[in-house]
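Consider this today:
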Amino acid sequence: MLVPDGRILVTGGNGFIGGHMARHLARVGQYKIRVVDISKTAYLEPPTGVEVVIGNLCDPAICARAMHGVNAVLHFAATMGGMGVIHSANDFTIYQENHRMTLNLLAAAESAGAQLFFYASSACVYPDSLQGPGNEDVSLKEDDVWQQLPPCPQGLYGLEKLNTESVLFQYRSRLQIRIARFHNIYGPGGCWVGGREKAPAAFLRKAIALKRSGSLTDGIEVWGSGTQRRSFCFIDDAIEAIVTLIQSDCQEIVNIGDDRSVTIRQLADIAVRCAGLRDPANIQYRYVHDKPIGVASRNSNNDRVRRLLGWSPKTSLEEGMCRTGEWISKEMDKVLVRLKEPERVDMLRQYATSKKVDLQADAITFAILLPITSRGTASPENCLVNLARFAQSLAVSTADDVARLGTRYRVRIYLAIDNDDMFLLSDNGNRAEQVLRQEGSWEISTIVCNYPRGHVCALWRVCAREAWKDRADYVTLMGDDVVLLDPSWMSTVVRAFEQMSVEHGVPPGFGCIAFTDTSFPGMPTFPVVHRTHMDIFGGEVIPDIFVNQDGDPFLFQLYRRWGCSRMISPRVSNAVGGGEDARYQKVSAVGWTFGPLSDATAAVEAWLREHRPDVERKLTLDVVIPCYRVHLGYMDRFLALRSSPTCTVMFIVIVDDPCSPNIATLMGKYAHRPDVRIRVNAQNLGASASRNRGLQESSAEWVIFLDDDVTPEDNVLVEAEKAIRANPKAAGFVGTALFPVADTIATAAIHLAGVTYFWDIARKRADDDDLPWGVTANLIARRDKEDNIVFDLRFPKTGGGEDIDYCRRKRNFSMADGGNGFCAAPNVVVTHPWWNHGRRYWWRFYVWSKGDGALVAMYPEYTYRQVVPNSAEVLVLCVVATIGSCGVSLLLHGATTRVLQIALHGARACIAVLVTNILHDVYRHGWRNIDRTGALNMSLGGWALFLAIIESTFIRIFSEYGRLVGMIERREFGAVGRSFDWFTNRAGDGPRREENQNRLQRVGLWILILAVWYHA
């Protein structure tokens, strides 16, 4: 009996009878329910509060896990079905799997201390001799099993059930054993299509499909003559009987079935009426005599179950069939509503017939696509040596899966050989096939191809197409130089696809799985795709643009857009190719991350709209980090960032110092991650070149550039996604880059000099959807448009102007394409440290300015004429005038006294320039623009602030000097005397007027100081 508050294990809990039982027990509310099933899906909505274990009961470990803490076992799980499954071709498989499940469960039940074991047996245990053509009125009693000795049940399915009953009787001293023999249980929630359904569901499906199609002349298919007799018990009655049995002290075997039998033709007539068709007499029946039909007559004798349990079925066959038909009709409509008319017609045609299931042929088939060549090695024989090594690894790595019970696997190899490869296609036969057969591979198809040498992707396509036509479930590209290193990789692939389907709500088989390639860690090589992918693309695995490179990452990146790309732990070793040299000239598919990937994405989206419209595409965002310092602390912070579930992120680290001692540690820690790609430049190329390489490595719709020394907020990727989704037509987004509090004179001077103004421009102009530009320390850019815009390498390697140029060109392309400019993303926040650890270092600003001065000549539309020279130009003019005057004086007069006087005047002028700028900056920061000064993130005051203002003057002049030097070095003499509007005309004339005002005030003050100095 069941113990109140005890834990009950229902095996096959996602199936028909087990599912109904679990739902019933859950409704009672007196027990803890755990279900175990090999299938993750069920026709019935799973009951709430029920623990679910997914696994194969042929595995003792799964049984032990499922049995932990269980008081009672209700064992419904079985490899079974109607006559489409229970036939001689499947006998041995059924016996093996069902018996193994029960023995494993029994051992686990005894070990776990379970008290009760209920076993779902079958009416198939009864002798064939009692169910022949002359026994139309047979009524099978429980003891009739032994009327014929030795017993002769219906096939090995019935024999296994009978033998298991005998095994269970041996356990009666250790467990409370309850056994029921089911007679054709039917009802809502059972299998109704695919070959495993029983007669009631099959006839109802056919009748409903006939009505839906409107073509009554097609008739209804009947296996056999239709005179076979059966009794059918409705599921609700069966559940009531089971509950009564397990709650009783009855230790005898009982039949659970209806004792009213009908012919199969009569059952079909009832189905026709339930489907709402006209008089069955007007329906044409098509009798099929080459399909299994089972025994001639079977009916349950219910005398014992009535006597011991007081149970009798209450639901008439007509009522039960109508209720079942209503459920099947709804299930059918769920399928048909997603189909277009031609597909709907074809599906209804399929529903009109029943399938015979071959469990071995119905195994999960992996197609190994194997292009091979005898060329490219020292000796043609090496190809066969490599092939033998591959075949050995294939046999070893698939042995466990192939031998597994419960879920069946098979392997089929598709060889692709060049038609002129006379070594492999010799007069003595196909040498490659011979080698494979010697190593135990028997299912082989050879495709002789005529493609240019090295066109591996063409061979991949033709092999995949053949595998698709052969209805292979999964296809994966291999090579004769590949070695599979780990066992059970096929079941691992299947589980990975199942997990993606559950996690992301995508159809079964949707996605891409990649092996772990020991020769190219982190790179998604050797992808596995399901037949679903081939269906979406009409049998084409990859587009024609691919020659022999990039097909693997194409598939991985395609399904990444739905979060359905995954790298599994089973490893492969690729002796030739991968990241190293191949036996052919590598040809990349230029631009595949743009048009081809976008077109494929659109095709998948269109397919999903028809088959799973509720599935939404994720945003793809790549983080590009040009890295010179390779500071592991910063790297750990970057690579620990997490996105939201609706965004998929990849980290691309470009190491620009190939001599860094931290590269090996970085690789060892992160290179294995499929979401991390680490590339090392052969030499120091600079930040712009490294960002360009990051863009080339990326396949995402968007990239976010982060400097390698910033500290991002934990939510930076989430906020980036929010900004993108709010403005999907933007060219990009400018994030906020903050600095620590300026608590020293050196760091405060940097703020006061104005060189950090644009670092937090996103906060200053938070509502702007067309910001002038943003710093690349925290910049998001659209990447899915083939605009050919990269960072211009004319700018300095350490930076200076390249960010402005990049943003302007991206912005202009976007606007011309109907998009927007760069929007503010104030909540995308990083913190940048003070350069040189906060120590004084002005050279950086000089180099920056030297580079950004090129913008004046590049973008004349954003420049303006200075009313007077800037401070650096005045200083240079003073120095040049002084040196020139001294030279002229020496030539004309030759007297050094006059030269010294001229030099003194020049020095006075230069000193006056510096004093003027200091005084003016004190005036600006301390009085005129004191509100701006107060807004700066500084903690200084008093004399320290005064000294910081003085230092900021020198930083500003040094920057202006760098800009002037750059123009002269580039011979941009026409740019001298012109300034770049950092706001690119977006702030009106205000910034220009203020800057010219400052220059006029400085020059005026300079003249005044000189006049006073000389007058004094």
User: Anything to note?
Assistant: Residues 364-611 form a domain with the Spore Coat Polysaccharide Biosynthesis Protein SpsA; Chain A fold (CATH 3.90.550.10). The longest helix spans residues 896-928. The chain has a mean pLDDT of 92.
